[in-house]
Amino acid sequence: MIDTYRHKGLRKKLVEILRQKGIRNELILEAIGKIPRHAFLDRAFEEWAYKDVPFPIGADQTISQPYTVAFQTWLLEIKEKDVVLEIGTGSGYQACVLAELGAKVYTIERQESLFHKTNKLLKKLGFSRVRTFLGDGTKGLPRFAPFDKILVTAGATEIPESLLDQLKLGGYLVIPVGEGEDQEMLRVQKMKEHKYETKRYGRFRFVPFLPGVQKDSKGNKH
Fold this sequence. Notes:
7-stranded mixed β-sheet; 222 residues; 6 helices; Rossmann fold; single chain
């Protein structure tokens, strides 16, 4: 994977844009400054990698805009060695940001074609310590629970009980929730069993949070 001086310069500009938009956590900005975001897009669309916009990555999914990635990461308050579950691997970029901050990341993708593509990319980029799973994100990953933090990168109509059950006491679930085209960003903290505190952080737009697994209809072998 080629990472040129130009790419590094564009990342530096992106970091400044995020700083101007209110992202103040230097560790998050440093992680975004290190990770070659252009590697997560097809080469033909490389010019879009360092613009602060979402971009389609196939299988009806998008790579979230960098501000959204930084904002959700900030809400999680990642600490070294936190065990984090991400629902919606997508391109893998958000998982890499979490891993760069020292988290132990488990991530689930429901689109089989995207899962295989991203799995290969993470290994190629040296993020093989990110553990990837093909599965139904609404069910979480009970065999590895409980998690310090859980991040959902798709818009849900409600908060799945299964995810709350898999959260450690004191842990955060960050999830966009809403009925329409855009959702409200929520951070839910588990105070004690079946007692939660919810804070709201404005409107965002995500692809829908869907149950089940979408098999690769082309029958491709991976």
